[in-house]
Write a structure and sequence with these properties.
heterodimer; A: Alpha-Beta Plaits; four-stranded antiparallel β-sheet; B: about 575 residues; alpha/beta; Rossmann fold; six-stranded parallel β-sheet; 24 helices; globular
Chain lengths: ~100, ~575
């Protein structure tokens, strides 16, 4: 189970789009907690996901118009093995992996 | 004071909209009432699905945003297939729907549907307008998202009382997106990595998708491909991006791609993807897709990366930026000599379809048709066997010269889309190729063609089956032709006549002699050059099949080149 935190502007449909990215992959949503966070909103999701789905979800969430930031909870930093996460990891790591 | 409906139309004009496609109804009546004198031309289709496909056709051929309008409830839900189609194929589309009046929302009022909810997963962005004050901002933001990045569909749902309400209006607004930490953008540093990968590679290839035409970077991409001079192929939406006469070009790749393209893709050790999603129709079995290759994926939408198969180097950004950067780096290095690989991949022994396939009268007919088309024509294909035959046989150098519903595969797309294309390009020959199944799905748009006097050239490849499904039934379901027999089709020639559209029939026997008889050729020429709409019904053998074919779940290297015994 992995925890994701998605910061978003609370515009119409944004939360639903965030949840839909998970539900369209037939992922259960055992924990959903949405709340105001400073000037924005944040939703926390707990999802049972594999590595490929993590990458897809990150990218799909970032493609939503009013999503500001995506991060994940414990274990994410070590769990991430793909050479090109969508944000937060230097492109240089991606290049090094590609040349390997 | 301005009514909400007037504000909508003024904002549309400010976005450059001249044409909208739609169908009126109760909740959207105020908008229709305001159309006259607005400077916006409304095209009445005979079904909302026709309107949204026509708007898509307009958008696909121009690159501009297509606009469709419909009323609440069934009007709005009839747009849904077109919205899904625009999402899959990256078509900039804005749909404006009327909604029941604000006080009734949520009460299951007459013709109330939660179109915002229904389309949430199909749109890039959507808005249910709550006050008249929101209208200018909603339209500006909607158009921004429809156009930006990877283009796509937007829905703006406006309650009828908002369209009737009045307010002071100082003019349309501009939308400025909020700054946010974006995905890692290509910073130019990727170029030396690709060059290094090229220098390590022995069998590099290039795959071109829809992103090439959407980016507007066709000249830059063609220069790069000429420089690379490696075997190159295209997805169905990438057709036209590469001149078909280029010596390194192998045609379409994927489920019904050419043998040469699929073999090269299977053998490559470096796959450079330019603006393609790599969907399952291109990859076949993803675990055996380009099994020896490192993949460099040029893509504007990070959400498209790694969907089917992880790539080794993403190059995120608009091809208009990343392709010139790549080529600039390439100029500083010598490109390795790939001529031996090119000779194999592009060699005669891998060329084209089997002779039996070439001898098919339907393919011969399409060849005759396409060879007689005026330059810069636009060909639309519906969905099914004829679509794949057309994609295989139409060799256009025009990036927006071949239009089809590729991702969603929506039957009934081509005829209404041709309406939008012809309106956008009144001086071009617009040829709409359909099957007998798909043509009937939006046959009512013959009335739109006739009403507008559009010189659309319509062809039905009539095999009296749902041909592609039947082909699968033949090959994979022991010829159990369950519910695909359309032998009780109506007489399309007579139907067209009822719409006052000239129509005639051509039997496939006319294609059995080569070259075709002069009278047949003359008739095709006359058809293509007629200033009026015309329908040509081509009677095709019921069991003609499309080859090559990669069975679902098979690797590209396992393509069938001809019929094999059923399993």
């Amino acid at each position: 189970m992995q925890t994701f935190h998605i910061r978003y502007r609370n515009t119409q449909g944004t939360l639903m789009r965030i949840l839909n990215a998970a539900s369209r992959r037939a992922l259960d949503l055992p924990l959903v907690q949405a709340e105001p966070a400073e000037y924005d909103h944040q939703v926390t999701l707990a999802l049972e996901v594999n590595q490929k789905q993590v990458g897809q979800l990150y990218r799909e969430w970032y493609a939503i118009a009013d999503v500001i930031k995506v991060s994940s909870g414990t274990g994410h930093a070590t769990a991430w093995t793909a050479p090109h996460p969508p944000a937060g990891v230097a492109m240089e790591e991606s290049r090094t992996a590609a040349r390997a | 004071m301005h009514k909400g409906a007037d504000i909508v139309l003024q904002c549309l004009r400010a976005e450059g909209v001249e044409l909208v496609f739609g169908y009126p109804g109760g909740a959207i009546m105020p908008l229709y009432d305001a159309l006259e004198g607005s400077g916006i031309r409304h095209i009445l289709t005979r079904h909302e699905q026709g309107a949204v496909f026509a708007a898509e056709g307009y958008a696909r051929v121009t690159g501009e945003v297509g606009v469709a309008m419909a009323t609440s409830g069934p009007g709005a839900t009839n747009l849904v297939t077109g919205i899904a189609d625009a999402k899959m194929d990256s078509v900039p589309l804005v749909c404006i729907t009327g909604q029941v009046r604000s006080a009734l929302i949520g009460s299951d009022a007459f013709q109330e549907t939660d179109v915002f909810g229904v389309t949430l997963s199909l749109t890039k962005w959507s808005r249910l307008v709550r006050t008249i004050d929101e209208i200018p901002e909603a339209i500006a933001e909607g158009f921004y998202w429809a156009r930006s990045g990877r283009p796509g569909p937007v829905v703006i749902d406006i309650p009828t009382d908002m369209l009737k309400a009045k307010k002071e209006f100082s003019g349309p607004v501009k939308f400025t997106p909020h700054a946010r930490p974006a995905d890692a953008k290509a910073d130019g540093g990727f170029t030396d990595t690709i060059v290094a990968l090229l220098q390590q590679a022995a069998k590099p290839v290039a795959l071109v998708g829809a992103g090439a035409k959407l980016s507007g970077a066709i000249p830059e991409l063609r220069r790069l491909l000429d420089h690379l001079n490696v075997p190159t192929f295209a997805t169905v939406h990438g057709l036209g991006a590469v001149p078909p006469q280029a010596p390194y070009y192998l045609g379409m790749v994927g489920m019904h791609g050419t043998r040469a393209a699929n073999m090269a893709l299977h053998e490559t050790d470096l796959l450079m993807v330019f603006g393609a999603r790599l969907d399952d129709r291109v990859t076949g079995d993803p675990t055996r897709f380009a099994p020896h290759a490192k993949i460099v994926h040029f893509e504007i939408d990070p959400a498209q990366l790694d969907r089917v198969r992880p790539c080794d180097l993403p190059v995120i950004g608009n091809l208009a930026d990343t392709v010139p950067a790549f080529q600039a780096e390439l100029r500083r290095h010598s490109v390795p000599d790939f001529s031996a690989w090119r000779a194999v991949a592009c060699g005669a022994e891998r060329a084209e379809l089997d002779p039996r396939g070439l001898a098919q009268p339907t393919i011969r007919f399409l060849d005759e048709l396409f060879s007689r088309l005026p330059q810069d024509s636009v060909v639309l294909a519906d969905v099914g066997q004829h679509q794949m035959w057309a994609a295989q046989r139409y060799r256009s150098s025009s990036p927006r010269g071949f239009i089809t519903s590729g991702g969603l595969g929506a039957m009934g797309f081509a005829l209404p889309a041709a309406v939008g294309v012809q309106l956008a390009k009144p001086d071009k020959c617009v040829l709409c190729v359909s099957g007998d199944g798909g043509f009937q799905m939006n046959i009512q748009e013959l009335a739109t063609v006739r009403r507008l006097g559009l010189p659309v050239k319509m062809v039905i490849i009539d095999n009296k089956y749902l041909g592609m499904v039947r082909q699968w039934q033949q090959l994979f379901y022991q010829r159990n032709y369950a519910e695909t027999d359309l032998s009780d089709n109506p007489d399309f020639v007579e139907i067209a006549k009822a719409y006052k559209i000239h129509s005639f029939r051509l039997n496939e026997d006319a294609m059995r002699e080569f070259p075709v008889a002069k009278e047949t050729g003359d008739e095709i020429d006359r058809f293509l050059r007629s200033p009026e709409p015309e329908l040509l019904v081509f009677d095709c053998a019921p069991e003609a099949n499309v080859f090559p074919m990669v069975p679902a779940g098979a690797a590209l290297s396992e393509m069938l080149l001809e019929e094999e015994p059923t399993q």
